Predict the structure.
Amino acid sequence: MYLKIKRLIDIILSLLGLIILSPIYIILIITIKIESKGPVLFKQKRVGIYKSHFNILKFRTMRIDTPKDTPTHLLNNPEQYITKMGKFLRKTSLDELPQIWNVFIGQMSIIGPRPALWNQYDLISERDRCGANDVLPGLTGWAQVNGRDELPIPVKAKLDSDYVSNISFLMDTKCFFITFLTVLRKEGVVEGNQNLDTK
């Protein structure tokens, strides 16, 4: 029953987010275009509900000559590819804002396991065991408020399992507000390590 209400909450909050944050979107779009050539948005293939694939949206944080389909942590000196604006976007997590659209159209939820890359087979397999692939992935989730990039895959999957087992309005509300604290404190972000975005 809650899952139906959860989807309604996602639609309402994502629509409000798109409207309220529109001035910030405009400012970021202009700034990104002024600093570097290329598209404003970066699309990346991720795993959605029932292991379907979708394109997650982010503001582009790296130059267009960055090697394609190469995780940040596998690049030689990844810092050379990240734009100045990109560093700011990553540190503040503002590069994730376009995913509000993914939520609005039903590819993601506000709260849920973060969507794995299509080739993160170990994480996908671990999530299969706990049913975490059978719920919508989220903008943020229980694993994100308990470590983010610092977590090894088994621990991340265990936290995803805990979320799926205890999914409720109270759990989602808790994740929602703790997320703001972790973002403001910049906790758990490991640039160039397990942050697997290529642009």
User: Anything to note?
Assistant: Confidence is low (pLDDT under 50) at residues 190-199. Residues 2-20 form the longest helix (19 residues). The CA atoms of residues 43 and 130 lie 28 Å apart.
